[in-house]
Amino acid sequence: MNEMHLYMAQRLSALVMAPFVLVHLGTMIYAIQGGLTAAEILGRTQGSVFWFLFYGMFVVAVSIHAALGLRVILSEWAGLRGAVLSGVSLAIGLGLFAMGARAVWAVTAGGAP
What we know:
By secondary structure, the protein is mainly α. It has one domain (3-109): 3 helical TM bundles of succinate and fumarate reductases (Up-down Bundle). It contains 4 helices and no strands. Helix 1 crosses helix 3 (49-77) and helix 3 (49-77) runs antiparallel to helix 4 (82-109). The protein is elongated. The protein starts with a helix and ends with a helix. The relative contact order is 0.14.
């Protein structure tokens, strides 16, 4: 991918993330103001295909967005270029995805993989 494609992917991932962030924050505010405990929240999310898909897509968008944003920072501040820059960025994105997927699984399926 050239730099313009990466730039557009980073911006599009931000566009995709925006509604996820708003729903997530709204849900958290509702849960806290409603006095729900962690156990009650997990009781509502475990086994839910909706929350699995919602947070799964959120994790994908965040992984792409953060990895591409950090790619720019690594290029500008650390001077990384070429294959090293791409490899480090890919590793960051995959790491974020793995951690996020594990969290989504734990919250919606009832346990860590």
